[in-house]
Amino acid sequence: MNVLLIGSGGREHALAWKLAQSSELGAFYAAPGNPGISEHADLVTLDLADHAAVAAFCKAKDIGLVVVGPEAPLVAGFVDDLSAAGIRVFGPSAAAARLEGSKGFTKDLCSLHDIPTARYRRFVSAADARTYVQETGVPVVIKADGLAAGKGVTVAITKDEALKAVDNCFEGDFAGPGSEIVVEEFLEGEEASLFCICDGERALLFGTAQDHKRAFDGDRGPNTGGMGAYSPALCLSEQMVKRVMREIVEPTLAGMKEAGSPFRGVLYAGLMLTEQGPKLIEYNVRFGDPECQVLMMRLASDLLPVLVAAADGDVSGVDLRWSEDRALTVVMAAEGYPGSYRKGTPIRHLPRGGETVRVFQAGTAMSEAGLVASGGRVLNVTARGKTVREAARRAYLAVDAVDWDGGFWRSDIGHRAIMVEEA
Ligand code: AMP
Ligand code: GLY
Question: Which of 56, 224, 308, 380 has its CA 20 to 30 A from that of 347?
Fold first, then answer.
């Protein structure tokens, strides 16, 4: 089967690496891809906003499956248009992608189906939101409704911060016609992520992970897209996973079907494990980045038939096998990230990797002088091991072997898990 992969980050490099091992893979294309992905797929230039042009490419190349990595095309109706053109795509329709594209939509769905989540109110006016914040007090969480590349959320500790965040959503960076926000209860607990491959009706558990969102060691510094992850999440016991499936994921799928927008694709549940039980923080409608990298490192079965089954609407016959190993990834980011960062610094040497270590490329580009950093998150050094400690040791040895001067990384990815593991 010929496959087209959409995206250019470390998540997509991990997907490309895994898909390239499929016994069912024919020709393999990626748009736009990156230098790491080019080791597995032919890179093609396509205007991803021009769905008709992408569909024409798929017809010309006899593409049997399109795999969409990032959320923006999903929210923009990429899957709807390609499906209408008769092309099989793995990913949700625009209506189903509202689970990530609109926080208000997801909160209302939770409320309608008794899915545990933070108490909330939606606002379309700054004045009303300010009054509400004055009444409820802090800590409180302010969220811009739409996609904001992870920057639309403020956990406000003081009233001042909360009011500023409200104003910022209506007048600042995320403002636009029809601006809307969600103000919600602050949840306390440990955060973890759970992934499912969904076919519109059924959810196939696809592993768990824990991300490290803050830029610096000890969970300090600004929020990022993720500075490292490990899988499985030790805090999600088998029993807890069952509870999340029963109380959160399954009612969501049923609710989406009932609403006429069945969810097909990867459902990524961001969870808070509170004293009252697991609660949904947010949904994403795609693989996490860098969580995908650790999932791919642990997946023992062929990925391609799983994605095809989901796209065809029946995952019931899918057989998933996982390595018993733990996997861990360290994100090497460009100095300055998540603020403005330097581009074009040379990456002189990447370790070759092997059975237990892979270096996935995220923000890299090929220049005349060789490989250079071109994005905020640049490399994802990923390893497997019998324990989180062993995976971390292997990953950090490989980090030390990378010859690149322009980057920084956290030195404590997986530390808390190692402490739990060895307690
Ligand atoms: P999100 O963009 O929704 O993933 O939110 C970013 C981060 O904000 C999450 O990973 C949490 O750490 C934090 N967060 C979001 N909502 C809440 C909440 N209701 N209570 C506590 N923390 C939250
Ligand atoms: N690593 C967080 C995300 O992919 O949204």
Answer: 224
